[in-house]
UniProtKB/TrEMBL annotation:
Gene3D superfamilies: Nucleoside phosphorylase domain (3.40.50.1580). Keywords: Glycosidase, Hydrolase, Menaquinone biosynthesis. Transmembrane segments: none annotated. The gene is mqnB. GO terms for cellular component: cytosol. This is Futalosine hydrolase. Pathway: Quinol/quinone metabolism; menaquinone biosynthesis. InterPro entries: FL_hydrolase_MqnB, Nucleoside_phosphorylase_d, Nucleoside_phosphorylase_sf. SUPFAM superfamilies: Purine and uridine phosphorylases. GO terms for biological process: L-methionine salvage from S-adenosylmethionine; menaquinone biosynthetic process; nucleoside metabolic process.
Length: 231
């Protein structure tokens, strides 16, 4: 399954993996491709994306055709200089950046409060196959509930996550749903804007959507050579 946030992202993926039929689930519509991928516009933000992805995963399991892989895909912000606008990033770590507690001494992730998880790691061999096939840069993709809008916040995120190349709003939610079903996850972002001071004029959504289509055109055949037992 490929989970994007919004229909325009799903349609960018579908230009590389044409959808053949529509399947209506409670609360979601899947576009099934001829090659057997299910494309889902899962909603914006980690909570809705997790709920939608979990619904699709459960429906697939109950139908006796559980997914073998879940891909969180879409446009995202890129950290300079590693991820310029128009580039593709594949996550070696899908990390939630703002799930925790603020203290006088700084931010504490939930794991330091004794709860849960803040990072999911896609299979290394899969990340390598995808990066080689698509030319995507490899690094941490942060999931945030609030889009970064200042240089200070961007610097704070990079200080806490030196391997961060991109940020989006859904990856960790989709990864939590996949993990609950024991299914591997991958996250791919096409960079539409720099992470930093808010500047709507600097957005290149069309270029990012084109990069997403091109990336999926190369990724789908590459995945056929991936052996899930080589994790
Ligand atoms: O109004 C703004 O300043 C603003 C800046 C960045 C993104 C938005 C959105 O409403 C889009 C959220 C949507 O797109 C993904 N996305 C794209 N760029 C970023 C980003 O820099 N940081 C986080 N998410 C981004 C995100 O996954 C959502 O699906 C508004």
């Amino acid at each position: 399954m490929v989970a994007t946030a919004v229909p325009v992202e799903r349609d960018a993926v579908a230009r590389a993996l044409p959808a053949a039929e529509e399947i209506r689930l409670p609360g979601a519509v899947l576009c099934r491709t001829a090659a057997g991928w299910d494309l889902l516009a899962a909603g914006v933000g980690p909570a809705l994306a997790a709920a939608s992805a979990a619904g699709a995963l459960t429906a697939a399991a109950l139908a006796g055709r559980p997914y073998g892989l879940v891909v969180s895909a879409g446009i995202g912000g890129g950290f300079a200089p590693g991820a310029p606008v128009g580039s593709l990033v594949v996550a070696d770590a899908v990390t939630v950046a703002d799930l925790g507690a603020e203290t006088a001494d700084g931010f504490l992730p939930v794991t330091e409060l004794g709860f849960g998880n803040v990072t999911h790691r896609p299979p290394e061999s899969l990340v390598r196959v995808v990066s080689e096939a698509t030319g995507a840069r490899t690094g941490t993709i942060l999931t945030v509930s609030t889009v970064t809008g200042t240089a200070a916040r961007a610097a704070a995120l990079r200080a806490r996550h030196p391997g961060a190349l991109a940020e989006g709003m859904e990856g960790f939610g989709v990864a939590e749903a996949a993990a609950a079903h024991g299914v591997p996850v991958l996250e791919i972002r096409a960079v539409s804007n720099p992470v930093g001071p808010r500047d709507r004029a600097a957005w290149r959504i069309g270029d990012a959507l084109a990069a997403l289509t091109e990336g999926f055109g190369k990724l789908a055949p590459a995945l056929e050579s991936w052996n899930p037992h080589e994790h």
